[in-house]
Amino acid sequence: MKIDIWRFLGAGRFPEESKRKLGVVALLYFIQGSPAAILWEVLPVYLRLQGISLAAIGGLRLLELPYSLKVLWSPLIHRYGDRRAWVFGCMIGVALVVGLLPLADAAQGGAILAVLVLALTALSATQDIAIDSYTVGLVRRDEEGPANGVRASAYRVALVTIGGGLVLLATVFPWSALLVMAAVVFVLLGLAAFRAPRLDLPVEARAEWLGGFLNWIGTWNALPLVLFALTYKLGEFAIGPMVKPFWVDQGRSVFEIGLVPTTAGIVLSVAGSLAGGVFISRYGTFCGIWALGLLQAVSNIGYALVAWGDLGRIGLYGASVFESFTGGLGTAAFLAFLMNVCEKEHATVQYALLSSIFALSGRLVGGLSGLGAERFGYGNYFALTFLVSLPAFILLPWVKKWIHEAH
Fold this sequence. Notes:
With about 400 residues, the chain is mainly alpha-helical. The protein contains 20 helices and no strands. The protein has 2 domains: about 190 residues, MFS general substrate transporter like domains (Growth Hormone, Chain: A), CATH 1.20.1250; about 200 residues, Growth Hormone, Chain: A, CATH 1.20.1250.20. Helix 13 packs across helix 17. The two termini are about 30 Å apart.
């Protein structure tokens, strides 16, 4: 059974050392997804039950700006300390914030709540820097395919187990007790980060972080790279916020929405991420970003066809299955690309820059999605999101120069 699992991950031929690395990657990205589960899965439910308006809950997404600005303090993580210690420290901070959430009377005033949410996003973003940097340095080029499938999957598993688990338990236990329990779990996850082997950056790389960064990004040749990071997932970002409202307006029940695009969707995206990792390990990163990315983009057309043709429940289910699975494929490909183009000695700042750009474009486009769907209608808007995906593929001939394929 164990051998079958490694073969499924595309790591059957790998030595035991590589397999242990995949276990470390899974642990670290489960840790990385845990604060995000509070932000995206738990807080909207918790705050709505406290009587907070939808507008206020949506406005809290503006407090996720640290994800788009984290490159500004990434040199601190690069220059000082053990990256595992950064993860531990951030998780202790996350635990403290989550434990304090019940003390913030959100219904009476949002100032304390806003400070806590901003602290949570800043700690989560800082932890992301350390984990992404560590992983780029840990994984060899030939291990990147399976590693990216594993890390995308582990992140989603954290969203389900931490986020969905807390919401489910809220039907039995009071929120204050649940949030304290979550804080204890976060402390334990922080301690678990030290199970990863120590991985130090060279002294020269720490000292010369600015030179390493500028040599990598400081020419016009980097413009296609930046534009590609900005545009590769625009179609997914544009359609994502409108999928659940589309299901509602199609007359589907809350049970169906919870079962198909939510629960089954996450399972399928995990399967897609793992399959994408296997594909990349066999065919390479460049092939992965165009082939898997194109499938991800085409999936938006499925929802457009449902909206245009009134294809009913079966058509809607089929569009959801295809979109969820190919979303996992595209995520694995994009993560593999980000890891691949970064230099291992300077990945802290380099990866932080690209992921900051990626996060910024997602929040901007997602914020406009409702206006687009209202203006053009669901079918036309979903088709437009497919067209929005295409400019990234025009950049592929220039982006290919940045990719280090394993031989």
